[in-house]
Amino acid sequence: MLKLFPNAWEKSTYDIDYARLYELGYRGLIFDIDNTLVFDCAPADERSIRFLKEIREMGFKVCLLSNNKERRVKMFNQEIGADYIFRAKKPRPDGYEKAMEIMGTNRKNTIFIGDQIFTDVCGARNANVKVIMVGKLGPKEEKHILLKRVFEAPIRLAFFLCGGHRWKITE
Question: Which domain holds residue 71?
């Protein structure tokens, strides 16, 4: 069950204390895109563009990791210019490992940020990378993801009942 729990939970990607993560020695950030940085299937917006620029200026390396086709990821990344991996086959660890290789980081100084348990959290755990799970940004999602959310609900409840909402990345 713990493999389904993230290391920390935040309401939104934009609520994470990135200065604190940098202080703790993290240098690589791997992000899911849809419902993590922008609404499902949306292009990069002003907030996501500004945010990704700011965290790179802080000194973080950034890589986007998505199970989507290249067309979707490339469209999102057009104004951002980050490294990216498409068709990542999350929860397999390969994409996470490739992202760290691209960024020149390792398991100890990299964090993954995403909104789904069965792909994002499990994948990061399979790759032995710390993971911060965030609440999804919007209600619109593809049907297969909506179905997964039904199965995620009891896991989220268990996470919160175990005090998971108070867990933070501390090392």
Answer: 2-166
- For 15, counting Cβ atoms within 10 Å of its Cβ (0-12 exposed, 13-18 middle, 19+ buried), the class is exposed
Number of structural domains found in the chain: 1
Helices (H) and strands (E) in the chain, counts: 6, 6
Write the CATH number for 47.
3.40.50.1000
User: pLDDT tens across 34-86, in order?
Assistant: 999 998 888 999 999 999 999 999 999 999 999 999 999 999 999 999 999 99
Asked if residue 171 belongs to a domain, the reply is no
DSSP state, residue 1: -
| Share above pLDDT 70 across residues of the chain, in percent, rounded to a whole number | 78
Q: How many CA atoms lie within 13 A of 171 on its CB side?
A: 0
Radius of gyration, alpha carbons of the chain: 15
